Amino acid sequence: MSEKHLQTGDALPAFGGKLRLFAMRFCPYAERSVLVLNAKNLKYDTVFINLDQKPEWIYNFSPKGTVPALEYEEGKALFDSNIINVFLDEKYPDAPLQASDPIRRAEDKMLVEKFASAQSAYYTAAFNPQALESSMVQNYHKGLELLQTELQDRGTKFLHGDEPGLVDYTIWPFLERFEALPLLGKTDFAIDRTKYALLVTYMDAMKQVPAVKAYGLPAETHKKFTESRASGSPDYNMLDTSAVCCMRPRKKKE
Ligand SMILES: N[C@@H](CCC(=O)N[C@@H](CS)C(=O)NCC(=O)O)C(=O)O
Prior knowledge:
The chain is an alpha/beta fold. The chain has helices spanning 28-39, 81-91, 102-127, 134-154, 166-178, 197-207, 210-213, 219-230, 242-245; strands at residues 5-6, 19-23, 44-49, 69-73, 76-79.
């Protein structure tokens, strides 16, 4: 998979007949959909786009120009990670990722909703640190405590059960990025291994899930991308090896 991000003026690659996800490599919402596609073992293509110089054609798939968007048939697409993921789970029902109990499904959605204030605290800390307020740090820790309590109450390895489900794949991309905050000097956002022992065990288990292993990134990489974005020039192509793969050392002239 090329990690190069296409930009304004770049042509839309030909449709390959598979599901096609429009994404940005460091976008947590796009990661949600990648994880679900991986968890379901679906065949798909990925097109990464530069969100600062968007290719014109992204609006044919996503009216607001946001990622992720999923082209499920040539020229027909869905946008928004939650809409895409529920669609994928319902369209490809083998190994369902949502709870069969409607109440539990609703509880999972409420958990994601309640966790959202920790997500917004993360965004402020990472990209707009001068606007950070102590209430946001509190909201962040409330979010972590909420997850830990939920894991305790549910008594399962993952929030969904013995295997991860939609609720886990929806929340995980943010937990993955939270670990970059202390590396960026935001020590108030560190996830203390003693206070959050159960949550840390859960995070370690998530890192071993094949869908996550195939796409997740280490905190150090998120730190580097965050720094580039916070400085005003996001380095979208920092993982793109296609540019260097074929550069062979030149033969010395005899
Ligand atoms: N609610 C949307 C949010 C998607 C979103 O905000 N994606 C960001 C990248 S992480 C984006 O596309 N930003 C570009 C823009 O807003 O123009 C979802 O869950 O898919």
